[in-house]
């Protein structure tokens, strides 16, 4: 089995802690609709830090996944490297910050599920409509086109 770590987000940030691990893509079930299969592992690293009085979490994710090309519906190797910096805020503050979007906010949970965070970041960063390079593949027949439904991904995000 792989570790499914929970961290106390504020404590983690204030003490400059770091956590590294890996997770099989098959464990990230919300990605399912975007992928042709769930082979592979992703590596992640989370580190806490402060900027002045502001508590932050940095997250890095790397690996490769197999997205479904939206033209031919075939497999598309997609190398992942993702870096995000999240500003930790209380749930009360969270209600007020939605309008700003140049900074990503995260509610500072004392039991933050790191793998759920990794999955959230992936869902935000993966291309909405990935395709092979132009000329590499041909469109799938119309009748197959609705089998990869981007709206089911949005629905998963709202849970
Ligand atoms: Zn294609």
In short:
The chain has 159 residues and is of the alpha+beta class. The chain has helices at 9-14, 91-94, 114-125, 150-158, and strands spanning 6-7, 18-24, 41-51, 54-68, 75-89, 104-107, 112-113.
Describe the structure.
The protein is an alpha+beta fold and 159 residues long. The protein has one domain. It is 19% helix and 35% strand. It contains four helices and seven strands, in the order E-H-E-E-E-E-H-E-E-H-H. Strands 2-3-4-5-6 form a five-stranded mixed sheet. Strand 5, helix 2 and strand 6 form a beta-alpha-beta unit. The longest helix has 12 residues. The two termini are 25 Å apart.
What order do the helices and strands come in, and which of them pair?
Blueprint: E1 6-7, H1 9-14, E2 18-24, E3 41-51, E4 54-68, E5 75-89, H2 91-94, E6 104-107, E7 112-113, H3 114-125, H4 150-158
Parallel strand pairs: 5-6
Antiparallel strand pairs: 1-7, 2-3, 3-4, 4-5
Zinc ion is lined by residues 69, 71-72, 74, 131-132, 137.
The biggest beta sheet is recorded as:
5 strands, mixed
Distance from N terminus to C terminus (CA atoms, Å) equals: 25 Å
Number of separate helices: 4
What is the average of the pLDDT values? 87
**Ranges with pLDDT <50 over ≥5 residues?**
none
Order of helices and strands: EHEEEEHEEHH
Q: What percentage of the residues does DSSP assign to strands (E)?
A: 35-45%
- Heterogens: zinc ion
DSSP summary, beta strand count: 7
Q: Strand pairing plus helix content: what structural class?
A: alpha+beta
Helix content: 10-25%
Count structural domains.
Answer: 1
Radius of gyration: 18 Å
Strand order in the sheet with the most strands: 2-3-4-5-6
Shape: elongated
């Amino acid at each position: 089995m792989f570790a499914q770590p929970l961290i106390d987000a504020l404590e983690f940030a204030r003490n400059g802690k770091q956590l590294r691990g890996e997770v099989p893509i098959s464990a990230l079930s919300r990605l399912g609709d975007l992928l042709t299969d769930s082979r592979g592992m992703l590596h992640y690293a989370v580190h806490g830090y402060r900027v002045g009085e502001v508590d932050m979490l940095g997250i890095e994710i790397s690996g490769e996944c197999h997205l479904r090309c939206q033209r031919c519906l075939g497999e598309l190797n997609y190398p992942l490297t993702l870096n995000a910096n999240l500003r930790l805020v209380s749930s009360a503050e969270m209600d007020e910050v939605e309008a700003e979007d140049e900074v990503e906010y995260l509610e500072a949970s004392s039991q933050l599920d790191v793998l759920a965070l990794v999955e959230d970041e992936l869902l935000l960063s993966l291309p909405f409509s990935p395709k092979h390079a132009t000329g590499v593949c041909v469109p799938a027949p119309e009748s197959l086109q609705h089998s990869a439904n981007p709206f089911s991904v949005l629905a998963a995000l709202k849970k």
